[in-house]
Amino acid sequence: MSAMRLQLFHNRKTSHQEKPPPMLQETPLRSVAAGVPGEGKRPHAARPFFFLSDLHLSEAMPRTVAAFEHFIRVNAEHADSVFILGDLFEYWIGDDMLAEPFPARIAALMHTLSERGIALYVMHGNRDFLLGKRFMKAAGAIWLPDPFVITSFGTRIALAHGDGQCTDDRRYLRFRRIARNRFAQWLFLLWPYRWRKALAERMRHASEQNRSRPVSPRYDVTRDGIAALFKKTGTAMIIHGHTHRPARHREAGGTRWVLPDWDLDHGERRGGYLKIDAEGIRALPLD
């Protein structure tokens, strides 16, 4: 058996009054069956892990939704685990969205992974940080904090959505601190559903208007933000999304993989995912 491990950051008291700096506590995430050879049989290789992000699913993007359905039903068929590192949906205004047919359909599709024995892990992004327990249950998914660390095929890897590393965008980081505050979320969820949806639709429309404009470097991750993540997690590899600039970067602290966004409905076809198995890590296009 091989094992993937989740590393969470906990504070641990050294006295009754003081807290030291956060320490890494490693706890099992999920055992990965590497295959137990029977008599006259060769061992099976451990199944691969898949990483994707920034799908921005909505009814307005039917080709992108179809590509995700194909990925879940076909590409992920032999996966051990699937990791979605944020922005699964174009927006998420609360788990009462599951009363609508489209979100319920996506959750049911995702649940087929766990029905097939494939683990599904979902991280919040900057557009769907209100995904809650009800959604995770409906999708058969496990929520993961940002960042978290896995050990996969002997390599420790830090996973993040990526927005927290855009340290030059001070305005957004202020919004992020408020939006991730549980009290602020509770207040927002008290709004009538139609108000929340109207606000989200206005924000989506504004985002559509800006789609063709050049992206400012201010909205990208920074060298300092990435260096801090390497240091915090003690890893030499990072996988993140958010920036929609897929690439492999050589950083001072190690290797950084940036996941692509998915968009098959506007102009040039975009999308893809990372696959990690015994042969290494590869960036793969959509079928």
Automatic annotation (TrEMBL):
<comment type="function">
    <text>Hydrolyzes the pyrophosphate bond of UDP-2,3-diacylglucosamine to yield 2,3-diacylglucosamine 1-phosphate (lipid X) and UMP by catalyzing the attack of water at the alpha-P atom. Involved in the biosynthesis of lipid A, a phosphorylated glycolipid that anchors the lipopolysaccharide to the outer membrane of the cell.</text>
</comment>
<dbReference type="GO" id="GO:0030145">
    <property type="term" value="F:manganese ion binding"/>
</dbReference>
<feature type="binding site">
    <location>
        <position position="169"/>
    </location>
    <ligand>
        <name>substrate</name>
    </ligand>
</feature>
<feature type="binding site">
    <location>
        <position position="56"/>
    </location>
    <ligand>
        <name>Mn(2+) 1</name>
    </ligand>
</feature>
<keyword id="KW-0441">Lipid A biosynthesis</keyword>
<dbReference type="InterPro" id="IPR010138">
    <property type="entry name" value="UDP-diacylglucosamine_Hdrlase"/>
</dbReference>
<keyword id="KW-0997">Cell inner membrane</keyword>
<dbReference type="Pfam" id="PF00149">
    <property type="entry name" value="Metallophos"/>
</dbReference>
<feature type="binding site">
    <location>
        <position position="244"/>
    </location>
    <ligand>
        <name>Mn(2+) 1</name>
    </ligand>
</feature>
<keyword id="KW-1003">Cell membrane</keyword>
<feature type="binding site">
    <location>
        <position position="87"/>
    </location>
    <ligand>
        <name>Mn(2+) 2</name>
    </ligand>
</feature>
<feature type="binding site">
    <location>
        <position position="242"/>
    </location>
    <ligand>
        <name>substrate</name>
    </ligand>
</feature>
<dbReference type="InterPro" id="IPR029052">
    <property type="entry name" value="Metallo-depent_PP-like"/>
</dbReference>
<dbReference type="InterPro" id="IPR004843">
    <property type="entry name" value="Calcineurin-like_PHP"/>
</dbReference>
<dbReference type="GO" id="GO:0009245">
    <property type="term" value="P:lipid A biosynthetic process"/>
</dbReference>
<dbReference type="InterPro" id="IPR043461">
    <property type="entry name" value="LpxH-like"/>
</dbReference>
<keyword id="KW-0472">Membrane</keyword>
<keyword id="KW-0443">Lipid metabolism</keyword>
<keyword id="KW-0378">Hydrolase</keyword>
<dbReference type="GO" id="GO:0005737">
    <property type="term" value="C:cytoplasm"/>
</dbReference>
<feature type="binding site">
    <location>
        <position position="207"/>
    </location>
    <ligand>
        <name>substrate</name>
    </ligand>
</feature>
<comment type="pathway">
    <text>Glycolipid biosynthesis; lipid IV(A) biosynthesis; lipid IV(A) from (3R)-3-hydroxytetradecanoyl-[acyl-carrier-protein] and UDP-N-acetyl-alpha-D-glucosamine: step 4/6.</text>
</comment>
<feature type="domain" description="Calcineurin-like phosphoesterase">
    <location>
        <begin position="48"/>
        <end position="246"/>
    </location>
</feature>
<feature type="binding site">
    <location>
        <position position="161"/>
    </location>
    <ligand>
        <name>Mn(2+) 2</name>
    </ligand>
</feature>
<feature type="binding site">
    <location>
        <position position="87"/>
    </location>
    <ligand>
        <name>Mn(2+) 1</name>
    </ligand>
</feature>
<feature type="binding site">
    <location>
        <position position="242"/>
    </location>
    <ligand>
        <name>Mn(2+) 2</name>
    </ligand>
</feature>
<keyword id="KW-0444">Lipid biosynthesis</keyword>
<feature type="binding site">
    <location>
        <position position="126"/>
    </location>
    <ligand>
        <name>Mn(2+) 2</name>
    </ligand>
</feature>
<keyword id="KW-0464">Manganese</keyword>
<dbReference type="GO" id="GO:0019897">
    <property type="term" value="C:extrinsic component of plasma membrane"/>
</dbReference>
<protein>
    <recommendedName>
        <fullName>UDP-2,3-diacylglucosamine hydrolase</fullName>
        <ecNumber>3.6.1.54</ecNumber>
    </recommendedName>
</protein>
<keyword id="KW-0479">Metal-binding</keyword>
<feature type="binding site">
    <location>
        <position position="54"/>
    </location>
    <ligand>
        <name>Mn(2+) 1</name>
    </ligand>
</feature>
<comment type="similarity">
    <text>Belongs to the LpxH family.</text>
</comment>
<dbReference type="GO" id="GO:0008758">
    <property type="term" value="F:UDP-2,3-diacylglucosamine hydrolase activity"/>
</dbReference>
<feature type="binding site">
    <location>
        <begin position="126"/>
        <end position="127"/>
    </location>
    <ligand>
        <name>substrate</name>
    </ligand>
</feature>
